[in-house]
Amino acid sequence: MMLRISKYSIFFFALIIILFPRIASNISAIEHYPDIMIFAGIYCLITIGLSLLMGYAGQISLGHGAFYGIGAYISAILTTRFGWNPWSCMVIGAVITSIVAFVVGAPSLKLKGHYLAMATLAFGVIVFIIFNEEIEWTGGPDGMTGISGLTLFGFPLNTVERYYYFVWGIVLAVFIFTVNIIQSGSGRALRAIHSSEAAAMAMGVDVSRYKIMVFTYSAALASVAGSLYAHYLNFVNPSSFDIFFSIKLLIMIALGGMHYIWGAIIGAVIITFLNYEWLHYFEELEILVYGAILLIVTIFLPQGLAGIPAIVKHWFRRTLSDGSR
Amino acid sequence: MTLKKLLIIVSVCLIGFGLCISCGKKVEKDAYKVGAVFSVTGRASFLGDPEKKTAEMAVEAINKAGGINGHPLDLIIYDDEGDATKCNLAVKKLINKDKVCALIGPSLSGLSLAVLPVAEKNEIPLVSCAASYKIVNNEETGKPYHWVFKTPQSDSMAVEAIYSHMKTHGINKIAIMSGTTGFGASGRAELLRLAPDHGMTIVADEKYGPKDTDMTVQLTKIKGKAPQAIVNWSIGPTQVVVVRNWKDLGMKNITFYQSHGFGSRENIKLAAGAAEGVLCPLGACNIAEQLAADHPQKAVTMKYLKDYKDKYNETLSSFGGHAWDSVHLVADALSAVGCDKAAIRDYIEITKGFVGQHGVFNFSPDDHNGLTKAAFNMVVVKEGDWALTD
Amino acid sequence: MEQISIAGQLFQYLITGITVGSIYAMVAIGFNIIYDVTDIINFAQGEFVMLGGLTMVLFHVSFQIPIIIAFILTVMGVTLIGILVDRLAIRPIRQPSVLTLIIATIAVSFVIRGAAMFFWGKNPFDLPAFSGRNPITFYGAVIQPQYFWVVGFLIVVVIVLSIFFDKTITGKAMKACADNADAARLVGINVNQMIMLSFALSAGVGAVAGIIITPISLMEYDRGAMLAVKGFGAVILGGLGSFPGAIIGGLILGIIESLVAGLISSGYKDAFALVVLLCVLFFKPSGILGNIEISKIKRF
Questions:
Q1: pLDDT for residue A130 is more than 90
Q2: b/e for A69-103, b at 16 or more Cβ within 10 A?
């Protein structure tokens, strides 16, 4: 398990974020990539929280698509129906989502394994049905249009580049904050819960409190991501927040590597590009190829893509020691 | 340190992958590029799949006939999978990267509404293949959006066709069934909205999911309310199952109306005899054989029917024709004014008497759809085929 | 105008609920067979159902093979695919964690769905009802003959499986793998073979479910996911690993959906059923007939 994350690597990460649009804009084949990266960044916000929940606290969730949707719909409804300021909507969304997550999480997180998976899945489906049915508020399956964009200190975030830096700035901040949690005492408590709840409890860790805290934190992040999504696309519809999106989040975490916080970012970026760009060339065979890629990664890299360095290191050491013999 | 390595690997892979995929494309300097976004796979493939096939067929025919004034037509089709994000990205990619002269699609009303501001902002003509009247009606101004057109009939026209048919047959007490998809929900909304104007009393308003196995319950509930007719608005297998359940429950004395989504002969076949007597409003291309020989659309619809059958060997769907209309509308504009976005828009706006699959279009600055209620013909299922009815 | 009484309506809701619930129960049983032996929730279970329906259409409608032979061929074909899934996707995974296995089965479901779309296209297909389409009227309610087949097959499958797991050596060996794979290995049980057998059985049951519901609801390539969600709900509601639980869970979900659609709101019927599911879980975290020990499975 990746315990330490060096300042060095975070600096390098920030550098890539800053340079990517500059590099991309000079290469015509990938000039539209920053636009896709915005969505990857939005998904990163969810997967960072989810990775903390799954990889560190050991709790599965198939309901984060719903939290993402609640954030998006609260932003959409409050800005279009009541003309509220998008920033306050974002905060209200996060607060409401946290409350919902707490209310749902408190009884659900007592459940184990597949039962927890089903409970969160059920929650996700129920929320999706509400988005679909409350047509007066949500616009029903056709969704809502006319959601205003964001303005930061009188500076409209209305171009791809501006929104890119804005979203990835938030991702970086959230990432650093989350890394700090992991490296703190709470992080150790979370890992203890993951290894053995009974042992953690015996050591005096308030297991259920930690689980609910992480669940709520990850839900609030998903809500912020939802608001960012709604204000960028200026549109929301229920199908962006269905259970298949929740499953996609799960795939991002697994593909990236759930025991590595970097895995959340790698998984979100790779899956976003596979879905929105690269696999497009396979046309009708897209879903088949997607499934095959997932399967191959699962079989050959059970630790996810973020586990590659460890495997390479291991392999390198073995070859070196073989060579010296 | 290892992380750094990993990050380098990932970014190199990313760029490398992107590069090697994109370099294989050939670019014809001379071609007119038009972009299309259809929901070819995913939840709305019933729209996008026939639309894509039709569009490809139409473009092939245009190019075989020497293109547009010698320019080949290059239609770049992206699949949005019914996903708002993917649709938005595809439209922006078509505009900014592929640099197309005009856009066709998306297939879904919700997604058309979602990308309409993108087309407006980038000042590029967009010819939607989706039904909602909101696509060509800015609620604030009551006028159409400047750059946006659509070819399918509005749901409100289908509803009006159904309601007028009901009125002439003395029906005023009805029940609604609808699927919980965009198609079902917008049909339901129109049915509810227009009911008071036509003196219709709605006694039941039932719904079902797009993958539900059985609709007996909803129909039983409706049976208890004893309406004179049922209007069902859905798509895919459920609209067939609902007809079968209607027959099984012995509700043949309650007239059954379907939406135009029922317009494929495949559905009559799947209903296994249960569809006899079902009424629905259909565009001309779905009943090409039944049209009178002097009908203005007889020639184009018969040709489309034949070509589609020859090429794909499958029954014509209810929706493919919209793509035919959109492609030919844009092609006509291109042949008249060339690849000039503003000129294409202006040309489409004054197009009159354009004979398409779903009607004879007469566009105007106040009407970016160009169709009237007359674009729908009420038909009834008789002996396993459509038959025109008054 | 033929009227229908309130009692007749309720009776009709109940009958439809039982039929739909039986379908969920069939899917749930498929989940249980694999779970019992491996602790895996196979998210591709719905795809087996879809494949069953579509393969039957291919054999019976397209190739005109008589129904009984087509039925056997279909079940065998899908069983073979179940075996392939185990050999190609599940067994090669080293250090399997619960999440990896979930992702693997989801990936399998994508591959199967993609292949089915490629092979059959996107349109729905129909299968003739086994004994015609002339409904039977019974106390004001109308029953399609196919309903009897659905319930009948559920009963047969349950009886056969119960005998298999309780009375045969192979069945007992399979159960032993679930309790403790290492111990099972020590007493000479070929665990890998048992896992393969569980996938085969589960795919076979899924295929049967697909064959019997296609005449009611038609079948197309992407129906599997929704059936899997319903079946998963049923298996959790009833309690993981319990066959009677799967049946009870399926029937409860089906009947609630049906009654809510008839009496309260057809738009919210699925939501109501899931709220009931959640309430049950909050009071009994291992489902109605589940064993609390079984619910303490491996961590994610």
A1: yes
A2: bbbbbbbbbbbbeeebebeebbebbbeebbebbee
